[in-house]
Amino acid sequence: MTGRSVSPIIGPTRNESDFLEHCKRTVALHPDAKWRFIVDQLNTHKSESLVQWVVAMEGLKLSAEELGVKGKSGILKSQATRQAFLSSPQRTIRFVYIPKHSSWLNQVELWFSVVVRRVLKRGNFPSVDALRQRLLDFIEYFNRTMAKPYRWTYTGKPLAT
């Protein structure tokens, strides 16, 4: 763990194919490693294409009945069944889903707050391309000068009343 931002994708959308592409690019950095993606409850994080990619990456031999059909049966039936498959401890590429309304548990939210403060707040960008380049420049600068692992400090004690 270095705290560096790796394999950034900056595009106009944040849909199922965008998230899948991000996962593919990230895993390609170290294809034989065990991966843990900490994600929120967004539907794109529990997609049919994500399940099919994990099945292929892990070389799983699932029957058509086990895999099923989206909306009808098997692993692909629903977001809940896909989430159960993707979050299984035996997965090499595993997704850990944080509870709803707990963005403070998701470390990428800390990264987003840095980007907002350092790049977006009071920013003036004449074009989408200029914004994209400014973000990529900041990521390169951040990785070179400021990157370090986030240190979890919460002890589990309730806040004082």
If you average the pLDDT, what whole number results? Answer: 90
Record field, number of beta strands: 2
As a percent range, the share of helical residues equals: 40-55%
Enumerate how many helices there are, as a single number.
6
Biggest sheet, open or closed, and with what strands and sense?
Answer: 2 strands, parallel
Strand arrangement, major sheet: 1-2
Helix/strand-derived category reads mainly alpha
Give the percentage of residues in beta strands.
Answer: 5-15%
First-last Cα distance: 36 Å
Order of helices and strands: HEHHHEHH
The domain tally reads 2
Note the overall shape: globular
Name the descriptors.
161 residues; mainly alpha; 2 domains; two-stranded parallel ribbon; 2 strands; 42% helix
Summary, kept brief:
By secondary structure, the protein is mainly alpha-helical. It has helices at residues 16-29, 48-57, 64-67, 79-86, 107-120, 128-145; strands spanning 35-39, 93-97. Strands 1-2 form a two-stranded parallel ribbon.
Sequence-ordered SSE layout with sheet pairings:
Elements: H1 16-29, E1 35-39, H2 48-57, H3 64-67, H4 79-86, E2 93-97, H5 107-120, H6 128-145
Parallel strand pairs: 1-2
Structure description:
The chain is mainly alpha-helical and 161 residues long. The chain has two domains: 16-100, no CATH class; 106-145. Helices cover 42% and strands 6% of the residues. It is built from six helices and two strands. It has helices at 16-29, 48-57, 64-67, 79-86, 107-120, 128-145; strands at 35-39, 93-97. A two-stranded parallel ribbon has the order 1-2. The radius of gyration is 18 Å and the shape is globular. The two termini are 36 Å apart. The mean pLDDT is 90.
